[in-house]
Specification:
Length: 307
C-alpha cells in the first residue's frame, strides 16, 4: 500500500509521498515512525476558521507568562472589595423590608460609588496582563472606567432630573433615560469584572473563587438585569398600601433573596482571594525564618544547660 498524500519524515523532513508505508526514508535511512502528513500539521497548527483564529488569538492561555506575585495586593484589596459587596447586599436587604428609606439607600450607594472604582483598580493590577489572555487585558483596561458610571449616573440624576417637579428623591430612577443607560454600562462592567476575576482565579488555582465569580458574572446579566429594571424598592415601600402582599413576597422570595445570595457568594469568592494570599505570605514568612528560630532555640537551650 502506498501513500496518497504528502508524508513528511519526522527525522529529516524528507517527503515520503509515493513510498510504501513500511519503506525507510531514502534521505536519512530511518523508519517512517511518527511521520505525519503536511496537511494534518497545517490543521493542527492553524485554526480552520476565522472564528477559531479569533479564539486562539484572544482567549487561549497557551504561551502565557506565569502570574506574578500579587499576594500582598490581593490580601487587602480583595478583602475591601468583599466588604463593598456585602455592604451592597445588606443595604438591599434593609430596603427590601423597608427598614431604611429609598433616599437613604441612594445616598449610601452614591457614597460607595465614589470609592468603588479605586477598589476595582486595586483588584486588577496591570502586572498580570502578560499572564492573561489578550481579551482579558482589554477588559482590565475598560472596567475601572465603567465603574465610574455608577457615580456619574447619580450625579446626572441629582443635577438634571431631581429638580423637576415630577421627580422625587425616592422615585424610580429608571424612568430617567440618561442615568438609566449610564448605570447599565456600569452593570456590564461589573459582569466583566466577575469574568476577569474568574480567569484570574483559574490561573491561580482557586477553583472555589473561579466557580463563584463565573456564576456571579452570568447572574449579573440575568437576575441582576431583572433586579436593575424591576421596581422592587417601590414595591417594598408601598407594601400593604397600593401593592398586594403576594406581589411583594414574590419579589422578595423569587427575586431579591436569590440575588442577595449571589452577592454573598461573590463576596466569599473575594475573601478566598484575600485569605489565600494572606496564608501563603504567612507560610512563606514562617519558612524563611524557620532555620534561624531553630538555631536560636538550640543555642538558648545549650546555654541554659551550660553545654
Amino acid at each position: 500500500m502506498q501513500t496518497e498524500e504528502p508524508i513528511i519524515c519526522s527525522h529529516c523532513g524528507y517527503d515520503l509521498q509515493g513510498l510504501a508505508l513500511s519503506a525507510l526514508c531514502p534521505e536519512c535511512g530511518e523508519s517512517r515512525g511518527s511521520a505525519t502528513s503536511s496537511s494534518s500539521v497545517d490543521v493542527l497548527e492553524k485554526p480552520s476558521s476565522k472564528f477559531l483564529k479569533m479564539i486562539d488569538a484572544n482567549v487561549a492561555v497557551k504561551g502565557l507568562e506565569v502570574v506574578p506575585d500579587i499576594r500582598l495586593r490581593a490580601k487587602y484589596w480583595m478583602r475591601i472589595a468583599a466588604l463593598f459587596v456585602f455592604g451592597l447586599g445588606f443595604l438591599q436587604f434593609l430596603v427590601m423590608f423597608a427598614i431604611i428609606s429609598i433616599p437613604l439607600y441612594r445616598v449610601a450607594l452614591f457614597g460607595m460609588s465614589l470609592l468603588w472604582p479605586t477598589v476595582v483598580v486595586g483588584m486588577m493590577p496591570a502586572s498580570v496582563d502578560n499572564a492573561m489572555p489578550p481579551i482579558y487585558r482589554l477588559i482590565r483596561k475598560w472596567i475601572p472606567f465603567s465603574q465610574w458610571c455608577w457615580a456619574i449616573g447619580y450625579v446626572v440624576w441629582f443635577v438634571f432630573y431631581l429638580p423637576a417637579e415630577d421627580v422625587t428623591f425616592g422615585g424610580n430612577i429608571k424612568q430617567c433615560d440618561v442615568p438609566f443607560y449610564i448605570h447599565a454600562v456600569g452593570g456590564l462592567g461589573l459582569a466583566g469584572l466577575a469574568f476577569w476575576l474568574h480567569d484570574l482565579a483559574l490561573r491561580l488555582g482557586l477553583d472555589f473563587s473561579a466557580k463563584k465569580c463565573n456564576v456571579t458574572a452570568f447572574a449579573i446579566l440575568s437576575i441582576g438585569l431583572i433586579v436593575f429594571i424591576a421596581p422592587w424598592k417601590r414595591i417594598s415601600i408601598d407594601q400593604g398600601d397600593s401593592i398586594p402582599p403576594a406581589l411583594y413576597w414574590f419579589f422578595g422570595v423569587a427575586l431579591m433573596f436569590p440575588w442577595i445570595w449571589i452577592l454573598t457568594s461573590f463576596g466569599r469568592a473575594l475573601l478566598e482571594f484575600a485569605s489565600d494570599s494572606e496564608w501563603s505570605l504567612k507560610y512563606e514568612g514562617d519558612q524563611e525564618g524557620r532555620q534561624d528560630r531553630i538555631r536560636k532555640k538550640r543555642e538558648a537551650y545549650e546555654k541554659e544547660r551550660g553545654w
